[in-house]
Design brief:
By secondary structure, the chain is α/β, with parallel strands linked by helices. Helices cover 44% and strands 15% of the residues. It is built from 16 helices and ten strands. The structure holds (3S,4R)-3-hydroxy-2-oxopiperidin-4-yl beta-D-xylopyranoside (XIL).
Length: 378
């Protein structure tokens, strides 16, 4: 096994014979449709476009992604992972990286002071390895999912640092060499002040230093893992992305082992990539950092029409194309791949249908748009 799991390989565009045949058949079917994304999709022509694509053959996303040298992935939900064999089969077919939507979070892995619970996380890592996939670890430091026992402890600063160190050494150390990248710190920027958020347990217990310490502990536990700062709403140019840029720029300048910035990209239908996204990605890359898309989904307000599905396809197409265009964007990871289990309906009432497969595991236009983006020459 290569270090940190499956390596997507060089971006030379070379496909194995079976995938090449499927890709060629897909492209023929796609190219004979009258509509090409992204420019010309309208409410009038979308239904025909979608119908034609649905009968197209489909090579696996992961094969096309590997030929471009990137990872394509999904978050995995524990309940269907355990109970729905079709869910597992689809993940193994389509993706070459997985991340847990819940089971790597602090409260799940560390339910009491002296107890860790690795059953579900071990099962996901074993599944990934059995299927030649890489793993993203999510997440070590976040203001959510702090267990009650930790809050109740009211630790002193030194105790909190020791608890943070123990948690990170135990968790990252357990999977040393098997997890390609870790979200070390998640969502640390406050949306009002654009400073570090102060309503976080770790900020309150340790102060702003928690950030540096978390990266240093993670690096000590697995020196080869790529360590990420992950956030939302900081993808284009603006106050929040400037705050993230400054934050990671300071970490880089002071020798803190940060290696990447994650863009969550929980966007709404109608979203478009703009030159700002490219500029922001390029300035982060210029710091020597990777940029990965870490939690992509495209939420649609009810009811969803054929035209909405087409516009959603455009959003997915643009985001994958953006990643391929940046100097260093190794991964596009979706926050779930089927509407059967997406978190969007519970998080955003009135919205849904945010992923690339519908609730009965049929590929949506967005799926074909991702395929197409992976096949479009850079
Ligand atoms: C979400 C999960 O999908 C839900 O199942 C859970 O109830 C709450 O967390 N940003 C993140 C993710 O970094 O950890 C969140 O995941 C979605 C927003």
């Amino acid at each position: 096994m290569a270090e940190h799991g499956f390596d997507p390989g060089p971006a030379n565009g070379v496909l194995g014979p079976e995938t090449a045949a499927a890709a060629a058949a897909f492209e023929t079917a796609y190219d004979t449709t009258e509509v090409q994304p992204p420019a010309a999709i309208t409410a009038e022509n979308a239904p025909d476009w979608c119908r034609l694509l649905r009968s197209a053959p489909r090579p696996a996303l992961r094969d096309l992604a590997a030929a471009r040298g990137i990872y394509i992935g999904t978050a995995v939900d524990a309940a269907p992972f355990e109970g729905d064999a079709g869910y597992r089969t689809a993940i193994a077919r389509e993706f070459n990286v997985v991340v847990a939507s819940l089971v790597f979070k602090f409260s799940e892995l560390h339910p009491s002071r002296s107890e860790y619970s690795f059953e579900a996380s071990d099962a996901l890592v074993a599944f990934a390895e059995a299927n030649g996939m890489a793993v993203r670890g999510h997440v070590l430091v976040w203001h959510n999912r702090i267990p009650g026992w930790l809050l109740d402890l009211r630790p002193s600063r030194d105790e909190a640092i020791e608890l943070l160190r123990e948690h990170i050494m135990t968790v990252v150390g357990r999977y040393r060499g098997r997890i390609r990248s870790w979200d070390v710190v998640n969502e640390a920027i406050d949306n009002q002040t654009y400073e570090l958020r102060q309503d976080s347990f770790w900020y309150q217990a340790i102060g702003p230093d928690y950030m540096r310490l978390a990266f240093e502990f993670a690096h000590e536990a697995d020196p080869d893992a790529v360590l990420y700062y992950n956030d939302y709403g900081a993808e284009g140019l603006g106050r929040k992305s400037n705050a993230v840029y400054e934050l990671v720029g300071d970490l880089v300048a002071t020798g803190v082992p940060v290696g990447g910035v994650g863009w969550q990209m929980h966007v709404r239908n109608g979203f478009h990539v703009t030159p700002d996204h490219v500029q922001n990605g390029e300035r982060l890359n210029a710091l020597g950092l990777e940029v990965s898309i870490t939690e992509l989904d495209v939420a649609d307000p009810h009811p969803t029409t054929e035209a909405d599905l087409a516009s959603q396809a455009v959003a997915y197409w643009e985001v994958v194309s953006l990643c391929l265009r940046l100097p260093s964007c190794p991964a596009v990871v979706m926050w779930g791949f089927t509407d059967a289990y997406s978190w969007i309906p519970s998080f955003l009432p009135g919205f849904g249908n945010a992923t690339i497969f519908d609730g009965s595991m049929t590929p949506k236009p967005a799926y074909y748009a991702v395929l197409r983006a992976l096949r479009t020459p850079a």
